[in-house]
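Example record

One chain of 378 residues, shown exactly as stored in the release files.
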Amino acid sequence: MIRPSLKPLLFCFSFSVLLLAACAAPVPVATPTSTVTPTSIPTHTATLWPTATPTPTPTPTRIPPALPGVFHASQLNPLDPPHSYIQNTCQFLQDQWASTNSSPGTVVMAIMFHSITPKAVTSPDQISDFNFRLLMNALHEKGFQAITTLQLLDFMENNAAIPARSVYLVVDDRRTFTYFDTWFRQYWQVWGWPVINAWISTDQSTTDLWQQQVNLQNEGWVDYEAHGYQHMPAIGPDSTDAYIMQELQKPIEAFQLHFKKTPLAFIWPGGGFTPHAAAMARQVGYRLGFTTNPRGPVMFNWVPLSDEKDPLRPSWLPEGAVNDPLMVLPRYWDTDATLHLDQVIQIGQEATAYAEKNKAAELDYYDIACSSEYGPIP
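Predicted C-alpha cells for this chain:
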C-alpha cells in the first residue's frame, strides 16, 4: 500500500518516463545491403600538344654600302674628267666583275694615222717612216695588242674580254692598197694586228680604188669604218640636217654595196661634230664615234671628255654636251702617241688598284641590291 503522501511523486515520475519514451528517436530497421558492382572508369589517353616553335629573331635588313666614285686618273688634264655612260648600276657591276670579261683597268688607246712618209715631214699630219716604226715597236714591246672595231664595241658596251693593253689603229681618208701593203701588212703577218680604214665614201673614187679596198677587206686584216661622204667641210653648228644626213647615210649605202656590211663607227671628218649630229648618227645606226681630241685612253664605262672650252687647246671641241660618250671617243695623234704610252699604262695600273680596293664594297652592294633580280655574277 502506497502512502498517500507518495502518490503525487509516483505519478510525476511515471509521466516523465512515458514522456521520454515518446520523444526518443525510433530505431531504424536494418535493410539488406545489395552488392554494388563498381563502375569502370575509362583510362584517359593524354593528348599530345605540339611544342610551341620559338619565334625567330627577325633578320636585320641589309643596307647596301655606298659605292665608290668614278676613278680619276692623275695623269690627265683636270679639264678632261672621265664620263660614264652605263646608267644601270647592277648591270655595270655584273659586267665589271664577271670572270669571263675584261679585268678592271683594261685600257684602249686609239691612235689616228694620216700620211706616213719615208721623206722629210712637211705637214703636221705626217709622221716619218722612222717614227712610225718606232711607235709600232714601242707598242709591242710595252705589251699592247691591236683590236678590231667589233672587239672595241663589245668591250665598251659589255666589258667583253680583250687584251689588257689594247690599241685601236685608225687610218683616216682614202688610202690605196699600196699604202696598207707597205706600212701595215707586216704587223698583221708577224703580230696579227688588224688596222682600221676610216674610208671616205665619195663618188669620186675610181672603180679600181674601190676594188682595192674590197680586196683588202676580203683578206681579213683591214677593218673598214665610215669617214663621211663629201668629208669636208667638217660638221659644225651651221651644218644643215641635209648635209649631216648625207655624211652619215651615204657611207652606209656605199658600205652595204661594196663591202656587204654596215659600218659600226663614224670617224668624224676633221674632228667636227655637234650634239645634234651625234644624235642623228645614233638614229641611223652608228654605235661608236671618234674625234681628233687626244684626251686619253678609254676603259669600260670610262671616257675622258671635256665639258668646257679650254683656252690652251682652242681647237679641241668640248664633248660633254653630246651626253653620249661612245659617240665622241678620243684619239691620239700618231706624231706624239709614243710619248703617252707610259702614261696610258700607268692609268690602267691605277684603275686596277682602285677597283681592287673597292671590290668588296661593290660585290656586297651587288649581293644586296642586285642579285635577286640579276642572279649571281658569272
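Notes: Residues 1-48 have pLDDT under 50 and may be disordered.
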